Amino acid sequence: MPHTRRPGSCPQPARRCGAIAAVALLVLGLSCPSSRGLAEAPPPAAARTMADVLAAATAADWRPLDPARTLYLDLDRGRVVIELAPGFAPEHAVNVLRLARAGYYDGVPIARVQDNFVVQWGGAGRALPEGVRERLPPEFEVAAGPGLPFTRLPDPDGYAPETGHSDGLPAGRDPSSGTAWLAHCYGMVGAGRDNAVDSGNGAELYVVIGHAPRQLDRNIALVGRVVLGMELLAALPRGPAPMGFLERPEEGTAIRRVRVAADLPVAERMPIEVLRTDTATFAALVEARRNRRDEWYRRPAGHIDLCNVPVPARVR
Amino acid sequence: MPHTRRPGSCPQPARRCGAIAAVALLVLGLSCPSSRGLAEAPPPAAARTMADVLAAATAADWRPLDPARTLYLDLDRGRVVIELAPGFAPEHAVNVLRLARAGYYDGVPIARVQDNFVVQWGGAGRALPEGVRERLPPEFEVAAGPGLPFTRLPDPDGYAPETGHSDGLPAGRDPSSGTAWLAHCYGMVGAGRDNAVDSGNGAELYVVIGHAPRQLDRNIALVGRVVLGMELLAALPRGPAPMGFLERPEEGTAIRRVRVAADLPVAERMPIEVLRTDTATFAALVEARRNRRDEWYRRPAGHIDLCNVPVPARVR
C-alpha cells in the first residue's frame, strides 16, 4: 500500500536543528527533517526556538543523574529510568531504595494500566523486607525554605499559588503556608496508599501516563520522575477491569528487575544528563515554549502550563 | 508468583456505586469494588461524588450520538468512535465524511505515535477522492454568537479567557473578540496541516494521546472527539523516528476501515449516549470533580482544569 510520509502536515512542524544530541530531540519531540538552517546565522533572541536554545546550551546547563537516587527499571522491552526525589519525600526514598535492593519489585507484574491516568505495580502479596517501614509519614509537602530550589514559572496556575521547578521536578508552592510540593505531571512517580494518609510505603508505585491529574497534588506522596523510558509504560495495553486493573496481571507485563544505579559498576551506569532548571538556558527554553516562533505557529500561546514544560534528558 | 491486588492503595480510591452503566464507570475511571454504600442514604448534596451524580442522572441528561457525524474507526483490536464537530469545523467535517465514505482511510497505517503528544494517520500518497477539497479555510475558531452552546467552567485558565463545553466538546472563548474554539484535550481529533493555514483538509488526522498540548489551540483545526476507544490509540507502540514516526509504518497498526454510522443499518449502529454538558447534572459532576469528597481525598483541589473534566459516554 503506498504511503508517503508528510512531516510537514504534522501538528508540530519541522524545526531548525543544531548540534543537539538526538536523544534530547526525542525527549522533546522535536525533529531534524533536513539540514536547513545549519549554515544560517542564529536567529534573534526574540525568535529563538527550543531547538535553538538547546543547541546553544553549554555543559554547565546539564547535570548528571545522581546514581544514588537513580533506579533502572528493566522491562523485557527496554529500560525505564527513574530519579527519586528525596528532597520532597525522604522517607519514601529510603524505603524505595531498600525495596529495590531487596529485589522486592523484581518479577512483579504491572497490574494496573488505566487509560489517561496511571500505571501501577507492587508486590503487595510479598512480605516487606527487613528495614522497610510499613507506614510512612505523609510526605505530601515540604517547607519551602531558602534551602529548597525553586525556579518559578511566569504564568498563573489553577491548582497552586505558584508553580515552577525544583531540581528538575515540577512543583507547586504556597507563600502563605510556606510549603511546596511535587505536581502530578506526566511521568511523575508516586507511592500508592490506602485511605489512611500514612498507609503508603513505596511498595506500590504508580506513574502518571495521561493528562496531569493535579487534583492528586498534596493528597499522596510523589517520590520521583521518569527521566527516560516513559514510552514503554505509556504504551502498555490498558487493563479492562475497573480502574484499569488487569484481569490476569500474570499475563501482562512484568518488571524484570529494578536496580539502583549506584550499585552497578561505573561502566554499566547510563551516562544520563538532565537539563538544569535553575539556569538562564532553562528560562529561555520555557520562553521559547510559551511563545512558539516558527513558520508553523500563527498564534503563540503566551502561556505555559507547568505540566507542558519539558525537562530534557540526554544520554551522553 | 503470588500477587494480591490492593485497589485501596490506588491513588484514586474506591467510590460508592449505584445503578450506573459499567461503561460510564470505565470512561470515568471509577470503580465498584464492593456493594458498600448501596443501602445507605444518599449523602448530602455538598458531599456528592461523581458516581453519586451519575447515578442520579435521568434519561434527559444523556443525548444519543448523531449518526450523521459519527465515525466508526475499526482497528484489528477494536473500535474507535469519533464524533465530528461541524459546529466548529464545518468544511472539515464535510471533507472527512466524504473521505470516509470513499474508503480513503481504509488500510492506512497509523504512521505516527509520539509519546505524550499525538497519533496520526493519513493516506497522503493517495489521490483525493472526487468532491474532497484539497485546501480548506482555516477553521481554527468560530463566532461565539448566541447560537453557539457554551457552558462555562467556573475556574480560570491560562490559555483562554474563558473555558467550558460546547455540546460535549472542550472549548475556549474570548468575549473581547467574540470567538470560540475547540481545545486540544486528550482524545480530541484534528486535521494535520503544512505551514500554510489552508493546507489542512482532513486527509491527515491526529488524536491527542498525552497531556493537553493547548499551545496548538487556534493554530490548527480540531474536527471532533474520540468518544470511545481512546485506550486503543493511546496504547500503540511509540514510533522510534523523530516526532514519533514509525520507521516502517506498514508494519505498524493499520486502520481496517472507517465508516459513517448513518450509513449502517440502524441495528448495526452502536447505541452510544454522551452526557449532556448543558445541564444541572453536568454542573454537579464538574463540582464533584472540582472538590473530591470521599474518604481518600484529604485536600479537595477547589479547581478543575478544562482538560480534566470528563464527558462520560455509555453504550445503552
The residue fraction in helices of chain A comes out at 10-25%
Class by helix and strand content of chain A?
A: alpha+beta
Assembly classification = homodimer
Relative strand content of chain A = 15-25%
Total strands of chain A: 16
Give the ordered list of helices and strands of chain A.
HHEEEHEEEEEEEEEEHEEHE
Largest sheet of chain A: 8 strands, antiparallel
Strands in their spatial order, largest beta sheet of chain A: 4-5-12-11-13-3-2-14
In short:
The structure is a homodimer of 316-residue chains. With 316 residues, the first copy, chain A, is α+β, with helices and mostly antiparallel strands. Helices cover 13% and strands 22% of the residues of chain A.
Could you characterize what this model shows?
Two copies of one chain form a homodimer. The first copy, chain A, is of the alpha+beta class and 316 residues long. In chain A, 13% of the residues lie in helices and 22% in strands. Chain A is built from five helices and 16 strands. Chain A has helices at 22-28, 50-55, 90-101, 230-234, 280-290, and strands at residues 62-64, 70-75, 78-84, 112-113, 118-122, 142-143, 151-152, 162-166, 169-174, 179-182, 188-191, 204-208, 222-228, 257-260, 272-275, 313-315. In chain A, strands 4-5-12-11-13-3-2-14 form an eight-stranded antiparallel beta sheet. A five-stranded antiparallel beta sheet of chain A has the order 6-10-9-8-7, with no helix packed on it. Chain A has a three-stranded antiparallel beta sheet with strand order 1-15-16. In chain A, strand 9 and strand 10 form a beta hairpin. The two termini of chain A are 39 Å apart. The relative contact order of chain A is 0.21. Mean pLDDT of chain A is 87; it is low at 1-44. Chains A and B meet through strand 4, strand 5 and helix 4 of A and strand 4, strand 5 and helix 4 of B.
